[in-house]
Specification:
heterodimer; A: 291 residues; alpha/beta; Glutathione S-transferase Yfyf (Class Pi), Chain A, domain 2; 10% strand; globular; B: 193 residues; mainly alpha; Fumarate Reductase Iron-sulfur Protein, Chain B, domain 2; 2 domains; binds iron/sulfur cluster
Chain lengths: 291, 193
């Protein structure tokens, strides 16, 4: 299996551990993946607020590059906001007038977009392109005894969800079970993490993130598939604790980090040390703690 | 939602009848609203809003453009698409909120400095480098809002620096930005220059 990869801004910086663990896991599973060259920001939640056209032109620029480089390969996005924006641009391209307008803009970059490239969420690829027996066959260190709370967030499954349910997604369950972990289900697996509110309206943002953290807290860790979700749940737990009036401390990891852990990959690929809330207690549980 | 409701005399107030039409792609979608309240019930931010989504869509349909643009509702929207996928009338609500944010920024509605500063700072950094630079974005954002509130984030910022989560990079001043041409062309195509 061959894919192109759109990292997006976060997977290159704050969520580097998501990228390295993803690459390690896909390699183990025998997939080939190549980073899209010359990519630029998808516009995040900001492009569409600056203007309708900018909101589709920024992702379309990257899709045009992917068409050129791709040979029909699908484009993987690990960030749910990137994923949504890229799919939105493909959606917009189905309308001839809007595709023409996008291309008028892309002319200045010497690019043309046809609307042919298929963007997949990394979770979709991990859950659907490999059968669970293949995943199981690579498990060297089963996550037995580890309870994981899946957290999908919003844009992973909304508004586009060709691979899972909008409100009650289950894609992570079969992966986590294949790794030997137990799944802790809760009511906030697909509610929003609060996104930019943690910066712009902290009172509201911390309460929203707090609800998810509290619902997950019986588990040993939370598994995420989006850098924004991850940042909001991992980075502000002390502030959230103050708002909730009780201490919250739960490691928040990326799903490929857990997969890589079970596959026996090295810390230099998994980079658990980068997490803001220490993953040590959870690593000790599966006998993988280091110094 | 605050409990004291305000009485608006619809015959005396200026109403913009084209307002609701300007918020959706085809134009008539919001008119389908049956005020069922599913949008509000599904919204993770509703409890923090001054006007709930259901109320706001009613106000939009009544043409109360000015009142809608002065609510906090859109700035508390996290773009989670809950309301849009749940609305029984299939109205593209989350996308309508993006239009509201556009209008509020273009009309320079006062009072939501943190939110508008967030979008401006992000957009400026994206245009200049083609990618996000978290450090520079945060500096631009806090400089244009409230430097004091930055101190609340300073401890975390330091921890993130130590873990390599943010990269200290020198800002590049002057010269052409990575996406200047594309931003300019889009503005030209939309008749904004
Ligand atoms: S969910 Fe849709 S129909 Fe119901 S109140 Fe909201 S906008 Fe109107
Ligand atoms: S998209 Fe915005 S308004 Fe709609 S439910 Fe989510 S936060 Fe609320």
């Amino acid at each position: 299996m061959k894919y192109l990869f759109y990292p997006g801004c976060s997977m290159e910086t704050s969520a580097l551990e998501y990228t390295t663990s993803m690459l390690g896991v896909l390699k183990t599973l025998g997939a080939e993946i190549e980073e899209l060259e010359n990519w630029t920001c998808c516009g995040a939640s900001v492009g569409a607020v600056m203007s309708d056209l900018l909101g589709v032109v920024l992702p379309a620029r990257n899709l045009a590059l992917a068409e050129k480089a791709g040979d029909g390969r699908e484009l993987i996005a690990g960030c749910s906001a990137c994923y949504t924006n890229l799919r939105k641009a493909t959606e917009a391209a189905r309308d001839r007038a809007s595709l023409a307008k996008i291309n008028q803009a892309l002319e200045v970059e010497n690019l043309a977009f046809r609307g042919t490239v298929n963007t997949r969420h990394l979770l979709d690829v991990l859950a659907n392109d490999f059968d669970m027996d293949t995943i199981k066959s690579h498990v060297k260190r089963p996550l037995t005894g580890l309870t994981v709370a899946p957290y999908y967030g919003c844009q992973t499954v909304r508004p586009y969800s060709p691979f899972d349910d909008h409100n009650h997604p289950t894609s992570m369950v079969r992966i986590l079970e294949a790794l030997g972990a137990k799944v802790h289900h809760h009511l906030h697996e697909a509610t929003c993490c609060g996104t930019a509110l943690l910066t712009t309206k902290p009172e509201a943002g911390f309460t929203i993130a707090g609800t998810i953290l509290e619902a997950s807290s019986p588990a040993d860790c939370i598994a995420t598939v989006c850098p924004m979700c991850h940042m909001n749940l991992d980075s502000y737990q002390d502030k959230v604790s103050k708002v909730l009036g009780k201490t919250i401390s739960i490691p928040v990891v990326f799903l490929p980090q857990l997969m890589g852990l079970a596959f026996g990959l090295e810390e230099s690929t998994l980079l658990f040390k980068r997490l803001m809330v220490s993953a040590k207690p959870m690593l000790e549980r599966v006998g993988a703690a280091q110094g | 939602m605050s409990s004291d409701s305000e009485v608006i005399n619809l015959t005396e107030i200026r109403r913009d009848t084209a307002f609701a039409e300007s918020l959706t792609p085809v134009g008539h979608e919001l008119k389908r609203c049956i005020q069922c309240g599913t949008c509000t019930a599904s919204c993770p931010s509703a409890a923090f809003m001054d006007v709930t989504p259901r109320q706001m869509w009613r106000m939009a349909n009544l043409g109360l453009a000015d009142q809608v643009l002065h609510t906090k509702t859109m700035w508390l929207c996290t773009v989670c698409y809950e309301c849009q996928v749940s609305c029984p009338r299939g109205i593209p609500l989350t996308e309508a909120i993006a239009r509201l944010k556009q209008m509020a920024i273009q009309e320079r509605i006062k009072g939501f400095k943190e939110s508008t500063a967030f979008y401006r700072a992000f957009s400026d950094v994206m245009r200049r480098y083609g990618k996000m630079r978290e450090m520079e974005f945060m500096v631009r954002y806090f400089m244009s809002t409230n430097l004091l509130s930055a101190t609340g984030f300073a401890g975390m910022g330091l921890k993130m620096l130590q873990r390599g989560k943010v990269k200290p990079e020198m800002p590049q001043l002057g010269g052409e930005g990575r996406l200047d041409k594309l931003f300019d062309r889009v503005a030209e195509l939309e008749g904004r220059r």
